[in-house]
Amino acid sequence: MSVAKLVEDVLAAALCTGCGACGLVCPHNLILFDEDTIQPKLDFDAAICADCDHCHGVCPGLDPETDASEMHIYGRHRAAEERWLGIFTAFFGAQSCSEEIRWASSSGGAVTTLLLASRTRLSVRHTLTMGRNATEGWRASPVVSDSKDVIIANAQSTYQLAPYLNALRVTYDQSPDENVAVVGLACHVQALRKLQRQDTEIGRWAKERVVFMVETACSSNTLPAGTSAIISDILGKDPTRTVNVKYREGLYPGKFQATDVNQDKCAVEFWQILNKLKENKTHRCLSCGDWMSGLADVSVCDGDPNIFDASLNGGQAISKHARVLVRTPTGAEIVEYAAEAGLLDRWGIDLVGFNLGLERKKNRRRHYEQTTLPIPYGPGAGETYERSELRTDEELINPARYRSSKS
Ligand SMILES: Cc1cc2nc3c(=O)[nH]c(=O)nc-3n(C[C@H](O)[C@H](O)[C@H](O)COP(=O)(O)OP(=O)(O)OC[C@H]3O[C@@H](n4cnc5c(N)ncnc54)[C@H](O)[C@@H]3O)c2cc1C
Question: Does the beta carbon of 300 lie inside 6 Å of ligand 1?
Fold first, then answer.
């Protein structure tokens, strides 16, 4: 019984990513989510599940099935030297040619630009992005929309977990013949790729209709409590009177900004929120072995190597931009289209180099591999670390260290 296996393999082992895929695929539409823990609420009679394996089969919590998805997409597994970035065919620095999108974005708006390009090039009608809850505006909430304005408004990184893929259920139920584009984190893409390999009605729908996937790198995500603590403890404001939050507002690398019911805005520098985020992580996010899934059509990360340093020491001089990895023919088609249509500016880069988020990811993963705690499977290539380059997490993000090194 799928739900029992989901509990045993994933929930009991604290390996739920909160990706929402189980809610998307449940044939009985039974799975709802706790808004604070982002875990599925399984308070229904499990007898109804009979022999169904949908929810367990799609879950990336314990086993993202990277190897099987790579065989499906690329016809091969990644090699050891591809451990952390996965398989790709091209890479470059990029930013949106639109000032509006650059301003709205985290790192120059390559993701938003490619999502918009897929609407024209691949006849995408529905785009899944991360927005805000309609009644509690400080909470993250997925949005499926056909509106360009909404896609641009939902640009920027949201450092808050929310059940995500389940939002596609409405599209599957009501518009199954229309194309879908998705932006997500590694766990979201892993779940969708698992689903696309399944010979079920919803698996076939995902294979045929989810025509473009772009992912952003993810060092780790944070429970909603992290955001409410920033609003109450750092900004001194009331989360219940907050109608919107942005995590990377304004000039690079951006500020955390809360807007209240009177439309008054209050902001702090990005580096000031990091400890509250750090205090509200899940075991699954901290032990995750994937900075990128390597399975999206295109993957995007910050172009600046150390966002924390930039925030503390003045990143405004840096123009927002990203590093883009192209993985599939579909990804290449969208990128070429966006570049030729004058939507995306791209330039050559040297891919070798430091990324604070990736280094933190490697540090944490190495730590969890040395414990006896259950951790999610990584890609089959094996864990490789450039050990001489690694530093402790505390050393990497300690504000005092950066302040004293500046003076
Ligand atoms: C939790 C998290 C951790 C990250 N860690 C790293 C890191 O370690 N190193 C690094 O280089 N980059 C990291 N990033 C990615 C980086 O912050 C930028 O998002 C990325 O460079 C893309 O920038 P952009 O301007 O092209 O994207 P934009 O044009 O600003 O678009 C970003 C898109 O991502 C979607 N999105 C935002 N948050 C989420 C979410 N939680 N779940 C699903 N979709 C979401 C938005 O709706 C939007 O469509 C992280 C992002 C997140 C959300």
Answer: yes
pTM: 0.96
In a domain, 376, yes or no: no
Q: Which residues pair with 144 in a beta bridge?
A: 128
Q: How far, in Å, from the CA of 58 to the mean position of ligand 1?
A: 23
95 close to ligand 1 (CB < 6 Angstrom):
no
Scan for tokens 């918009």, then name that residue. 116
Ligand 1 touching residue 152 (CB < 6 A)? no
Atom of ligand 1 nearest to the CA of 105: 30
Residue that the structure tokens 């772009």 belong to: 214
Each residue's pLDDT tens digit in the chain (407 positions)?
A: 678 899 999 999 999 999 999 999 999 999 999 999 999 998 888 888 888 999 999 999 999 999 999 999 999 999 999 999 999 999 999 999 999 999 999 999 999 999 999 999 999 999 999 999 999 999 999 999 999 999 999 999 999 999 999 999 999 999 999 999 999 999 999 999 999 999 999 999 999 999 999 999 999 999 999 999 999 999 999 999 999 999 999 999 999 999 999 999 999 999 999 999 999 999 999 999 999 999 999 999 999 888 888 888 876 667 899 999 999 999 999 999 999 999 999 999 988 777 889 989 998 998 898 899 999 999 987 777 776 556 677 676 665 555 444 33
Distance of alpha carbon 275 from alpha carbon 285, whole angstroms: 16
Indicate whether residue 162 lines ligand 1 (CB < 6 A).
no
Q: What CA–CA distance (Å, rounded) separates 305 from 311? A: 12
The number of distinct structural domains making up the chain is 1
Q: How far is the CA of 157 from the centre of ligand 1 (A)?
A: 4
Residue 133 forms part of a structural domain: yes
Residue 261 resides in a domain: no
- Residue 339 belongs to what domain range? 2-222+281-347
143 lies in some domain: yes
